[in-house]
Amino acid sequence: MCTILLAWRCLDDAEFVLAANRDELVARPTAPPRRLSETPPVYGGQDLLAGGTWLAVTPDGRVAAVTNRRAETRDEVGRDPSRRSRGELPLALLRAPGGDALGAMRRIRPADYNAFNVLVLDADHALLGYGVGADSVDIVELEPGAHVLCVHDVDDPVHAKEMRVRRCLGQALRGVRSTTQCVDAMTALLGDHTIDGGD
Question: How far apart are CA 108 and CA 97, in angstroms?
């Protein structure tokens, strides 16, 4: 997963809307959404190379997603095959006992994975974890509003792609209060393949 758009607690008829593009490594083999876990039930697409997922949901409305993260020593596409798959993370967060995603996120050891951003949402929380080779995840609770997550920090103010997508999302959602309008705006934005700044 490479581009995630989120409207968090800023709509009249839903706690959140999330839309995403998998816009890197599009040739990597995947399976369409299916049941990935029986107890609790978790659904999502499946990465057929490493077995994980980039985006998963539960019937009670929880969502988890992961993106690669650009690190200083390695780009986000490269991966160390000796490390665990980042695609395990959405499943681990949604399978957390008692739905305790925060506790599950705190138990993640980033050094076991290639660099990642992981997002988990429920009706009460929007938690984002940055994992870059340390012993603990840097956790941020998102404020209400529109957010963009790619391979850097959420709402990154420096890199061309994130700045452009964030500006366009802000314009597209100005005055939008319904999920239908939000989904339409996000779908149109994710369908725009303009390249900015060579990123």
Answer: 14
* Pure H helices in the chain: 88-94, 101-107, 160-173, 179-190
Stretch 171-195: mean pLDDT, rounded?
93
Helices (H), 20-152: 88-94, 101-107
Whole-angstrom distance, CA of residue 131 vs CA of residue 139: 9
Mean pLDDT of the chain: 90
Helices (H) and strands (E) in the chain, counts: 4, 10
Candidates 73, 13, 12, 26; CA nearest to 54 is 26
d(CA 24, CA 2) in angstroms, rounded, equals 6
How far is it, in rounded angstroms, from Cα 93 to Cα 115?
A: 17
Identity of residue 118:
V
Q: Is the pTM of this model over 0.90?
A: yes
Residues 158, 163, 166: CA angle, nearest 5 degrees: 140
Nearest Cα neighbor of 46 from 31, 63, 58, 57 is: 31
Give dist(CA 31, CA 51) in Å, integer.
10
DSSP 105: H
